[in-house]
Design a protein that fits this description.
seven-stranded mixed sheet, Nucleotidyltransferase, domain 5, 508 residues, single chain, 24 strands, alpha/beta
């Protein structure tokens, strides 16, 4: 028996699974929560990395109950992308990590873009834009706003890298997650000296050496192995960002497969054999964690929006689905710009939520709930339409994440996207991706020549009972609503910034 642990450290919790590679079955699962730091100013989103470590070990312990721990061969870690974990010379955390959803760095993005010669020059040199969610502006923010902490900085890691560091004691970064830092040239898979020097030449010494995703991060440290009852030779794979691992866990390891992940954020991504660079910078030209590329769109407001609506009306999930299903497609013309935490695609870091189309017929819980669910889906479709313009043509979209569990939401997605959507049988995409990458790494390190395509065929299967196909009339209605949705966001772009300034002035 060969068992592999997959870890998915997200914004709200950490999940662990145990994959039996011989059968392709998940034989153990665990989960532990962690929290955002409360009381921060608007746009600031932070967490204590030590909480990720505690949640990881707790979820692993749960997943291993009743499992033969001596059969565990490898561990693969998925983590929320772009977060900045600042460490001192001794590997101690200097301050809480700023997360992917932190939008406080818009000014730093503008400064970095100007230093590199403008938006087009940035795309030429990096393949991606400087966005508030990315890591580079967070580092500059630390240097500008907390210079004492910056003087202590000696190591820059991403969230999954920090967990790998805890597991192995090694400073390690692979191409996939590193491509979301806005410090790496995604075409050449090398650190970009111009981006580094725009922050400070000393930063070059604080970044780990870049490694391919097929290289192991190291071996489990003896203390961690003993605490978890695992063998001392357990291999820790490179791991990757949650989207890179989600791609593996949904079988998105060959061209033609497209994945949509509906969690706190919403992402849609595809597999590509060469870089897919968007000249507008709206689509991220990421590397994946298999040695290829992962063109990706990301919206920041998905289940956070629908969950707030559900909580506001005191519904369970079934009651919310029933309410939404009682309202026809288009919610009677009511729509929501769901920018409760600013937005990344389109790049509107100062944006706020907007309800448009309220009248005596739509001002009720069911219409509001449908408008919220449709609004976040239209937000994702904005990016999918851009992906299509860059040559990605999905014939089917595979779904993962909490939102994929809702039948009414799956049908809305099919109708908005205009293609068939289907869920994954074992809906732990990023954690499963971590386990499969660990298996791929361990087997190749031990002389077996295996491919991720073959491993995914063994362990990833679709749940055909979840498949939804688009309704032609509903799709036409959503196309018209999409135009209104996107046009309203564009028209309000400058107003969002003015409103945010007014909010800050009132806070002071």
């Amino acid at each position: 028996m060969s068992l592999y642990l997959g870890i998915d450290s997200g914004t709200q919790s950490t999940k662990a699974i145990v994959l039996d590679l011989d059968t392709g079955r998940i034989v153990g699962t665990g989960r532990a929560p962690h929290q955002l730091i409360a009381g921060l100013p608007a746009g600031h989103m932070e967490q204590h990395p030590q909480e990720w470590v505690a949640a990881m070990e707790q979820s692993i312990e749960q997943a291993l109950r009743g499992v033969d721990r001596s059969a565990v061969r490898g561990v693969g870690v998925s983590g929320q992308q772009h977060g900045f974990v600042p460490l001192d010379a001794d590997g101690k955390v200097i301050r809480p990590a700023k997360l992917w959803c932190d939008t406080s760095t818009a000014d730093e993005c503008a400064r970095l873009t100007k230093k590199l010669g403008g938006a087009k020059a940035v795309i030429r040199q990096l393949g991606v834009s400087f966005l508030p969610g990315f890591t580079a502006p967070k580092i500059l923010w630390l240097k500008r706003h907390e210079p004492a902490n910056y003087r202590e900085l000696r190591h820059v890691l991403l969230p999954h890298d920090y967990l790998n560091f805890h597991l192995t004691g090694n400073y390690f970064m692979e191409h996939g997650d590193a491509s979301g830092t806005a410090l790496m040239d995604v075409r050449r898979r090398k650190w970009c000296s111009a981006a580094i020097e725009a922050i400070g030449p000393e930063l070059a010494g604080y970044l780990p050496k870049l490694s391919p995703s097929s290289a192991p991060a190291g071996v489990l440290r003896a203390g961690v192995a003993d605490r978890l009852g695992l063998p001392h030779d357990v291999l820790v794979s490179a791991g990757g960002g949650d989207n890179m691992m989600g791609a593996i866990g949904t079988g998105n390891v060959r061209p033609g497969v497209v994945t949509a992940s509906l969690g706190t954020s919403g992402t849609i991504y595809a597999h590509a054999k060469k870089p897919v660079v968007d000249p507008t910078g709206e689509i991220a030209a990421f590397c994946d964690s298999t040695g290829s590329w992962l063109p990706l769109l990301c919206t920041m407001n998905v289940t956070t929006v629908t969950e707030q609506i559900r909580t506001m009306f005191g519904w369970d999930h079934a009651a919310m689905n029933a309410a939404i299903a009682s309202v026809p497609a288009g919610a009677g013309g009511l729509f929501l710009l769901p920018y409760l935490e600013g937005e990344r695609t389109p790049s509107l870091p100062d944006a706020s939520g907007v309800l448009f189309g309220l009248n005596s017929s739509t001002l009720n819980p069911a219409h509001l709930a449908r408008a919220a669910m449709e609004g976040v889906t239209l937000g994702m479709n904005y990016g999918l339409m851009r992906l299509r313009k860059l040559g990605v043509s999905p014939s089917e979209i595979r779904l993962t994440g909490g939102g994929a569990k809702s039948p009414v939401w799956r049908q809305i997605m099919a109708d908005v996207f205009g293609v068939s959507v289907v869920g994954i049988a074992a809906d732990e995409g990023a954690a499963l991706g971590g386990a499969l990458q660990a298996a791929w790494t361990w087997q190749n390190e031990n002389g077996a020549r295996v491919t991720l395509v073959g491993l995914c065929a063994r362990a990833v299967s679709l749940d055909e009972s979840t498949r939804c196909r688009p309704d032609r009339k509903a799709h036409a209605r959503y196309l018209a609503l999409q135009e209104l949705h996107d046009g309203t966001a564009r028209a309000l772009g400058g107003q969002f910034t003015s409103h945010r300034r007014l909010q800050r002035a009132r806070v002071k």
